[in-house]
UniProtKB/TrEMBL annotation:
<protein>
    <submittedName>
        <fullName>Leucine-rich repeat-containing protein 63</fullName>
    </submittedName>
</protein>
<dbReference type="InterPro" id="IPR050216">
    <property type="entry name" value="LRR_domain-containing"/>
</dbReference>
<dbReference type="InterPro" id="IPR003591">
    <property type="entry name" value="Leu-rich_rpt_typical-subtyp"/>
</dbReference>
<dbReference type="Pfam" id="PF12799">
    <property type="entry name" value="LRR_4"/>
</dbReference>
<keyword id="KW-0433">Leucine-rich repeat</keyword>
<dbReference type="InterPro" id="IPR001611">
    <property type="entry name" value="Leu-rich_rpt"/>
</dbReference>
<dbReference type="Pfam" id="PF00560">
    <property type="entry name" value="LRR_1"/>
</dbReference>
<dbReference type="InterPro" id="IPR032675">
    <property type="entry name" value="LRR_dom_sf"/>
</dbReference>
<dbReference type="InterPro" id="IPR025875">
    <property type="entry name" value="Leu-rich_rpt_4"/>
</dbReference>
<keyword id="KW-0677">Repeat</keyword>
Length: 443
């Protein structure tokens, strides 16, 4: 059917991802199949702009596909290789030169072998053994040329091996070679062996913990260098005076021993910094304990202490005080003068319910009031001849907590509650030399 000769044109639409392109095509249709022939690009009307990127949602970034290593390398034809006499080994791969009649010293074009380093080394060793040597040279060395080494044992095992077992002692004693030791003597032998090891190695620390010793062995050989001594969990009824001869001692632990008092000889330990006497049977702390100049930590927890002397204020270096688990109702006011960083007072009778009994002032004795009046008025200048018992009474005086003057007897004891740096309200007991001094301090 003939078409009009007029150039009307047919418009076709080509849809892309986000745009629709209108193409104006002529009316002529050629070809036997009746399909539209593709027109050249110059005849297309370019009255539109295609953005470089689509306006739709962004797609995932394209990732480069990893090419296996076998595809990167050129394909090698597996064939049987004959090794020349000269070869080189580089790294973990055997590099073999190409087969040629003349082998140069340096191979410029190495090829990669399909065998690894170990397989190639095995083949080469096999070739060498097959070619030449039939016998193997052997040399027999005497045993004396080899150094003899002894396996090391822990020190505790060495000590236990040196001390015989109770069963061995019973067997030996049965043959009459060695008498059976008493249990206490056996424990002392173990402790003496530990002291001997400490002396041989010049160690500054000795631990006799849980040896259940009824007494302390001789420690005089360690007096010049021993700094640490642990005698916890033993059966010491008295404070070991042998310890007081250790002049360099800095840490002493006597935990879990039935010790009831501390002797005055402890003043010899001028370098002592830490004293642990928890879980003992102490009923009081002597004033000479606080005369140690370098005492920094004192642990007397879980004893039977009912009070702490005010002389604790003399321990100017004390920074840690552990007094929990005792029978304390009040604390001495001397604690307020110490640079404490740690104070533990749990499990005592410091609750405000018990303060009522200590708030009531107890009257002073007449002898104490008379002695104070005698000293303040300087009557000793007017009466040069004073009996010895009166002189002794006048000489036994303390220091008043309120005015820092002379204090005879206990004075007027009263309770004041203060908060420490941790916000805990604790009761402290003060002693005034007279009612006048007490009124001035309270008001």
């Amino acid at each position: 059917m003939p078409r009009d000769s007029g150039h009307t044109g047919v418009e076709h639409s080509i849809s892309t991802k986000s745009h629709q392109i209108l193409l104006s095509l002529p009316d002529s249709i050629d070809g036997p199949s009746g399909a539209l022939d593709y027109l050249p690009l110059d005849s297309i009307k370019k009255d539109f702009i295609i953005p470089p990127q689509s306006s739709g949602p962004p797609s995932f970034p394209l990732q480069k596909r990893r090419i296996p290593l076998r595809l990167k390398l050129p394909t090698l034809k597996l064939r049987r290789l004959f090794l020349p006499s000269d070869f080189t080994l580089k790294g973990h791969t055997a590099v073999v030169s190409r087969i040629s009649r003349r082998v140069s010293a340096v191979h410029k074009k190495p090829i990669v072998s399909r065998f690894n380093y170990e397989v190639r080394s095995t083949q080469l060793m096999y070739e060498l053994l097959r070619r030449g040597q039939e016998e193997v040279n052997t040399i027999m060395l005497p045993m004396a040329d080899f150094p003899f080494s002894v396996a090391k044992k822990p020190e505790r095992q060495l000590v236990s091996d040196q001390v015989p077992d109770s069963n061995e002692l019973s067997l030996v004693s049965g043959f009459g070679c060695r008498p059976q030791l008493d249990p206490d003597d056996e424990l002392m032998a173990r402790a003496e062996m530990a002291i001997l090891c400490c002396l041989m190695h010049k160690r500054t620390g000795l631990s006799l913990k849980a040896y259940f010793l009824p007494r302390v062995p001789d420690l005089s050989a360690l007096a010049d260098f021993l700094l640490y001594l642990n005698l916890s969990f033993n059966d010491l009824r008295l404070f070991p005076t042998e310890v007081c001869d250790l002049k360099k001692l800095q840490i002493l632990k006597l935990r879990n021993n039935p010790i009831k008092s501390i002797p005055e000889d402890i003043k010899k330990l001028t370098d002592l910094r830490t004293l642990v006497m928890s879980f003992n049977l102490l009923t009081e702390l002597p004033p000479w304990l606080f005369m140690l100049p370098k005492l920094e930590c004192l642990d007397v927890s879980y004893n039977e202490l009912e009070y702490i002397p005010n002389a604790i204020s003399n321990a100017r270096s004390l920074g840690c005080l552990i007094i929990e688990g005792n029978l304390l109702y009040v604390l001495p006011c001397g604690i307020l003068k110490l640079p404490l960083k740690c104070l533990r007072v749990e499990n005592n009778f410091l609750h405000p319910f018990f303060w009522r009994e200590f708030k009531q002032l107890q009257p002073q004795r007449l002898t104490d009031m008379a002695s104070l009046c005698f000293v303040r008025n300087k009557l000793q200048e007017r009466y040069p001849k004073i009996p010895e018992d009166i002189q002794k009474l006048l000489g036994s005086c303390g220091t008043c907590d309120c005015c820092s003057g002379p204090l005879y007897g206990q004075g007027l004891r009263f309770l004041r509650a203060y908060r420490n740096i941790y916000g805990l309200r604790l009761p402290y007991v003060f002693s005034a030399c007279s009612p006048f001094c007490y009124m001035n301090f309270v008001t």
